[in-house]
Amino acid sequence: MLNKRREALKKALHDQEPDVREAAAAALEKLEAVHDLEQLLNLLKNGTRGQQVNAIYALEKIASSQVFPPLLALLKNPDADLRSAAIQVLGRRKNPQTLGALVRHLKDPNPAARVHAAEALGNFTDRRLVSYLSAVLRDNDAVLVETAAQALGRIGAAEAESALVPLLNSAHANVRRMAAWALGEIAADEPSLAAAAMPPPPP
Question: Of these four, 38, 82, 134, 200, which has the most CB atoms within 10 Å of its CB?
């Protein structure tokens, strides 16, 4: 079935209309990515560490829900670099069903993985994340605090204001700078009662 579709799209690359050729090229690219999924999953299981990392990043480009189970499984991997790579890809894929798993890695034992988790959560527009990211702002890791502040600014929820304002007095210039930026990004309205009543994503 895939081969038949691939051959039809290859013929469409020679269509007289440029838009058709462009659409066919884009479709072929996606099809080839799906075709490569099995090979990437095999690399995750049997490849070298470098191949595994490359395979994780390659999964970001594959338009298939089949990428999520292996990526979520990698969040439990003892190798911090593999966990961090999976966190980054899941954040960029922005699947709401992965929120709970990503939130848990705000407490990952590896500092870099915690930073990647905070950054990943900033890709979502879920106001329920404000409480989790606000708690991170009390951490001693300035890079983590800066990243969490940036994530709050990207989410843009007004209820983040009370957590961000104290950061303007931080001893770290980058934290103060990011807090100022985030305060300019968050919504100007008061937090709604509906938003306040929303349950947090599952931990």
Answer: 82
